[in-house]
Amino acid sequence: MLTQEKLARINELANKSKKEALSQEEKLEQQRLREEYLQSVRSSLKANLMGVKVVDPEGKDVTPKKLKREQNKRKKH
Question: The domain containing residue 22 runs over which residues?
Answer without folding.
Answer: 4-76
